[in-house]
Amino acid sequence: MLTETRRRNSGPIEHVRERRRNAIAYDLRASFFPCRLVCIMSPDIARLVSKIHDAGFTPEAWPEALNAVSDTWGAAGAAMIISRKTPTPINWVCFSGLSAAFQSKYIDHYAALDPFSPLLRVSPGWMKLSECLPRSALLRSEWYNDFVLPCGVGDALGTY
């Protein structure tokens, strides 16, 4: 827990202290690690992390977690796609926001045409669709024209 032991002062430092009081602090310790790591998160981010953590244990919680992702980051929607390299590439999906109504269409048809998901496996980290595939290739893609754009999405951010 974060505590404030100094007297309150007015001025720019007070703003930082106020943010600390309104934030949730996580204290991560390990007996083999001689120092302490404190991660300060805003209440919104802390709630989001909690929802994602809960969804990791309860798959039924993913719709709420993905809605929280969209709300927190101001995104049009979010998706969790679990895939494998087999004839049936999709193991499980959950869409929220604008794309939620298209979830069954993705599973039934567009997953096999999705050029972005396989690229996410190539290198770790976050990748933007617009930086992975040229716009000219996207505009020729059935997946992009008939699935992505009708979902109200112009670009996507993903990771594996």
If you had to describe this structure to a student in words, what would you say it looks like?
With 160 residues, this protein is an alpha+beta fold. The chain has 2 domains: 9-56, no CATH class; 75-158, no CATH class. The chain is 41% helix and 18% strand. The chain contains 8 helices and 6 strands, in the order αββααββααβαααβ. Strands 1-2 form a two-stranded antiparallel ribbon. Strands 3-4 form a two-stranded antiparallel ribbon. A hairpin with a 6-residue loop joins strand 3 and strand 4. The chain is globular. Residues 1-33 have low confidence and may be disordered.
Write a brief caption for the model.
This protein has helices spanning 12-22, 43-57, 62-73, 103-108, 116-120, 129-132, 135-139, 142-148; strands at residues 24-28, 37-41, 77-83, 90-97, 127-128, 157-158. A hairpin with an 8-residue loop joins strand 1 (24-28) and strand 2 (37-41). The chain starts with 11 loop residues before the first helix and ends with a strand.
Percent of residues in beta strands: 15-25%
How helix-rich are the residues, as a percent range? 40-55%
Number of domains: 2
User: Would you tell me the structural class of the helices and strands?
Assistant: alpha+beta
> What's the Cα radius of gyration?
20 Å
Q: Which parts are unreliable, with pLDDT below 50 for 5 consecutive residues or more? A: 1-33
User: How many strands?
Assistant: 6
Oligomeric state of this protein: single chain
| Average pLDDT, all residues | 76
- What's the story with the biggest beta sheet? 2 strands, antiparallel
Element string (H = helix, E = strand): HEEHHEEHHEHHHE
